[in-house]
Design brief:
Layout lengths: L2 H30 L15 E8 L2 E9 L7 E3 L12 E3 L5 H35 L3
Antiparallel strand pairs: 1-2, 3-4
Length: about 130
């Protein structure tokens, strides 16, 4: 294996670390907004997801999309200042905190796997450099 290919392995792991960290940030935002209530006439907070694309240098963050497949939830809450004066309904987000926690665990595990791959590659580079020492 050439040193150049080992350096590429470091780049792949680094791009994976960046992508998984960004995923965790978006998931954290989703969890923070899980119980938000929309103002009258507005749509509720929509769950956001990260779009990742594979590249020759690893993975690239292509963007963030909103989940329009699941509707925002509605419930009766007369005590909420944003309730509909006629029906008492309030619109909340379409975020499922349990699913977000499952996604967070997956992103965390992927982050840890990228750290392990990075450290293994770094060790291989160090060992390759030690071969030339006397």
């Amino acid at each position: 294996m050439r040193i150049g290919s080992l350096a590429n392995a470091l780049q792949y792991s680094t791009s994976g670390l960046t992508a998984e960290r960004f995923r965790m940030d978006i998931i954290s935002s989703n969890i923070a907004n899980a119980n938000t209530v929309a103002r009258p006439g507005e749509d509720g907070y929509r769950r956001r997801g990260v779009v990742l694309n594979p590249t020759d240098t690893g993975v690239q963050i292509a963007g963030v999309d909103e989940d329009f497949t699941r509707p925002c939830l509605q419930k009766v809450d007369w005590s909420n200042p944003y309730h509909d004066p006629i029906t008492g309904m309030v619109t909340t987000s379409n975020v499922d905190p349990t699913m977000e926690m499952v996604d967070m665990i997956g992103a965390s595990r992927a982050y840890e796997a990228n750290i392990a791959a990075f450290n293994t590659t770094k060790g291989m580079i160090n060992n390759a450099l030690q071969i030339g020492k006397i």
